[in-house]
């Protein structure tokens, strides 16, 4: 009922939502799938029982545990390395937010640690005896595997993507924007939190924002990213950032940079200055691999989202920074299809530039972007309009392996695969 009311209100207000080696496998695309709405489970009638549980990386040996309750309850995590044994305890904070007539539940935030790398922990929330959750910390050094999926939404395709990811032995999930597709309908944020809890409560999810997270309504709700910032609190302070919309973190020899397409990025902006400093401070002996994520793609041969300011002008402002720092890979979302580019710089193949990958095919309600420019650019190595997800396995300090796994009716199919050699730090940039 609340979902219907929010959709009706949105219509009344007239809101317009703005939106190596390789091989291919032939494919007959299945029909569209239904939109999902995940209600609160009937076995969680207690308003203080944790829901929408998820974890994220904070520093080299800590995790942030976030969850929501319908009513106030202590923000405490009891945890240990054996089931049912509380060896450690940590306290945190609680916040909430309002959005027009919507009032969120109690959003709990607790940082736990120090934690041992590559170890399973058992944890309980809010002093509740049940349920008990488990999480696995990432390894301290490679090999490490990242699952990467953009523009998830919450449809049957999303569920298929999440089911496929759940069968992977990934350590960290990276999401380059467009999470819940709530688009001002706040109960959909809660639905999305329940949908991803089975995965997000076990492995860290690290995200950046997309256009669907903005949720700004002129004259009605004038602040952008209210819900996103309250619900998906990322470790921006630890990287010297002043905004939850852009940050970096390090894990198992990889420096990961999360950029914000929908906040200022020109050379005079705080984000530009932060990125410049962050790149200069990278120690390639400690983190030989550097990976960046951004929502609006800088390279894209799909007809969708061509010429958008957030893509074109951000590329003009920041491409030199990534190229000069010899960033290895850049992942983007926004375009609801998959495309992998060679290493490029200023629209030309360049061995010193990053390889760019568009991975906005997680399963959103808006469907696939099926039309590409013709002919295919020479720098575009593989492209296909299908839902799916990617996996990046950093094997060691010099080699990594990437696969794109296409959704189908029965399971994930590896449709694109390539090995990467780390960008040589001594590469002579032009």
UniProtKB/TrEMBL annotation:
It catalyses: a phosphate monoester + H2O = an alcohol + phosphate. Residues 47-132 form the Fibronectin type-III domain. Its EC number is 3.1.3.2. The keyword Hydrolase applies. Its cofactor is Fe cation; Zn(2+). Transmembrane segments: none annotated. It holds the Pfam family Metallophos. Keywords: Glycoprotein, Hydrolase, Signal, Zinc. InterPro entries: Calcineurin-like_PHP, FN3_dom, Metallo-depent_PP-like, MPP_PAP, PAPs-like, PAPs_C, PAPs_N, Purple_acid_Pase-like_N. Belongs to the metallophosphoesterase superfamily. Purple acid phosphatase family. This is Purple acid phosphatase.
